[in-house]
Amino acid sequence: MVKLLNIPFSKMHGAGNDFVVINQMNRDFHLTSFQIKKMADRNFGIGFDQLLIIEKPTQASAEFKYRIFNADGGEVGQCGNGARCFFHYLKIKNLSSNNEITVETQSGVIVLSYKNDGLISVDMGVPVFDHEKIPFISINANVPSVTVDSKTYEFFPLSMGNPHAVIKLPKLTGIDLVTIGKALQRSPAFPESVNVGFVQVIDKHTLSLKVYERGSGMTLACGSGACAAAVIAVQNQWVQGPVNVLMDGGQLTINLTPKGSIELMGPAEWVFDGELNISQIISHDE
To answer: Are residues 90 and 183 in the same domain?
Structure first.
């Protein structure tokens, strides 16, 4: 007989990028990738882009720790929208009264801040262009590119705590973005797969962005993807900072700080609380 296990959770979203948050600081359980995929199913589970699990920190410099899992059950290192939802969760659950906290993630310690206008700021760290650290394997000496249906698209590889490829397009409609995204994610150039960002320049401070995320597919918003797009756009003088990034789920603002780190600002919203009985998915595995 399977013992029932009821787990409280909160559903959150940041610019339409939705998350389930679970506080595991005082609980001892483990979710397999199969169970996470079942939970993420929008027809038969709760439905989410990513799962955020709060744990006790292991680094002395951090007040909290959280882990990030994509809808396919794979763990990832960074998520700007998730970081804001994580901080908002701490606030509404009275787990922290501070307006600035340090948080341990798989990609390192980050700083989160509440602003007077109600937005939440995330210090996303310094972008990484070293191919080995992204990781990215350059297949030829020319400008990195991918060819889909006889058309070649140049891209810019970088890491914002997770791998990204940024593609500039004249418009984001009338193009099969999903097929291009899948082609890059399957490419041997990205051994850990990649988040593919499609960018259209609107004006000198504004980008329109769609992101095909690894493990989640096309999402309404992607915080680290917005940062990656802004970094590449400023670097190539397509825009100037601060950069407003427009996505289907809403707007995020990206600042490139004098010290070289990237500041992401945007909203975070609580949707509902619930309790998950995972006895059925615990009793089955892959």
So the answer is: no
